[in-house]
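Contributing new complexes? Match this layout with tetrahydrodeoxyuridine.
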Amino acid sequence: MDAWQDLLCQQATAARERAYCPYSHFAVGAALLCKSGRIYTGCNIESAAYSPSICAERTAFAKAVSEGEREFTAIAIVGGKQGEPCKELCPPCGVCRQVMMEFCDPETFLILLATENNEYKKYTLSKLLPFGFGPANL
Ligand code: THU
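Output block (do not edit by hand):
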């Protein structure tokens, strides 16, 4: 993994510490790199009513887009049982993949999944959301 990708995974791991997940006890962190060079982090934020819960990835996108960012290079994601180091890769849910499709080029946007054992995988969005529906379809 390149140094900047490693840094992005470290930021996702730090953001994971801030997860609010009293119902699932599954803590997720994300770090989103914008083409501007800025990085926005996110964690999952759950709700007693369940459905208002938001994933770490969409928290990061909401923070970035609401600050005026529209172009993105990559997102790092780490997730696992709260209070334990991440041992398994945490793939993004379908809703988060669709939000990525809204703002990112599926052929070039990189999704980095990492564990705290330095295991990692890299995917393009088109690999994780093949034949996705996005702004270009309208
Ligand atoms: N979650 C994320 O934040 N991102 C993912 O990629 C998968 C799932 C959250 C949602 C919920 O708070 C918890 O993990 C268990 O599903």
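Reviewers usually confirm one structural detail per submission. For this one: The radius of gyration is 14 Å.
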